[in-house]
Amino acid sequence: MTLPSWRETEVGDHKLGSMARAALWLIQEVGEGKIFTVARLREAFPDIAQIDRRMRDLRDHGWEIATSREDPTLLQQERRFVTRGKDVWVPGQAKGPNHKASITNAQRARVLQADGYLCRTCGIANGETYEDGVEQSALNIARRQVTLPDGSITHQLVTECKRCGRGSVDRSVDLREVLSRIDSLAPLERSVLSGWVKADQRTYSSLEVLWGMYRTLPEESRKAVADALDGTDD
User: Fold this and answer.
1) Mean pLDDT, the chain cut into blocks of 10 residues (234 residues total)
2) Contact assessment for residue 172 and residue 59, using Cβ atoms and an 8 Å cutoff
């Protein structure tokens, strides 16, 4: 069967959505197993502002697109088209799990309370002004794709501010990786992490605070710090 071109917006009386066109672009311009960049994707679809997100939606239909999280050989802006899934350009094939159903007021209230009424990505509260002073935050309830320990994929609700929600960063979570990293921790590291989790807050040592201050210093001041440290070694 001849595939429609990814440049087309409709085939016969059937419209091709941006997700279907992104799938066709992967097949026709990238190829399975090959690497592409986010910039290249955006150049191909300059009029579609959310093309990154539409491509991520393909994962709900069996498409495997790896980021540097899944494939450490990739750079942050690189993706690997691992394998294709359903023919989402065919009518009826793009139907997936109904994880986009409306969120009820009760669900919203429960998630906000569980997340401490804070954006879980940047930590800002509703109505607070961002550090750049440009705007005030507004909290939403977002759906986060989570790969469970058994390999199945689900969507869970999480609090996120509008600014973080507009970002292009892929925030899907592989819980298997998180749990695997916990298993590899030394006992002391595990104890420290457990304390952070129970408090839902990370505490910083004096060295970490100093390092954060040092990183913000101009070059001349960084040199003064380096000289002071060299002097303590004498």
Assistant:
1) 87 85 95 94 91 86 84 89 90 63 84 91 89 86 86 86 71 87 93 90 85 88 90 59
2) yes
- Residue 118's SS3 state is strand
Cα separation, 85 vs 19, whole angstroms:
12
- The C-alpha atoms of residue 110 and residue 115 are separated, in whole angstroms, by 9
Type and span of the H or E element at 19:
helix 18-25
One-letter amino acid at 228 equals: A
Query: What's the rounded Cα separation, in Å, for the pair 168 and 146?
Result: 17
Q: Where are the domains of the chain?
A: 10-83, 105-174, 204-234
Name 124's Cβ contacts closer than 8 Å, sequence gap at least 6: 118, 130, 137, 161
Which amino acid is located at 13 in the chain? D
Strands (E), 2-77: 10-11, 14-15, 35-37, 64-66
**pTM score, two decimals?**
0.53
Residue 145: closest CA among 103, 174, 181 = 174
Token representation of residue 76: 């942050």
Q: How many separate helices (H) and strands (E) can be counted in the chain?
A: 9, 8
Which tens digits make up the pLDDT trace of 90-111? Answer: 887 766 555 556 788 888 999 9
**Angstrom distance (rounded) from CA 152 to CA 164:** 26
Distance CA 137, CA 161 (A): 6
Buried b or exposed e, range 216-231, using 16+ CB within 10 angstroms:
eeeeeeeeeeeeeeee
Element (H, E) at 153: strand 153-161
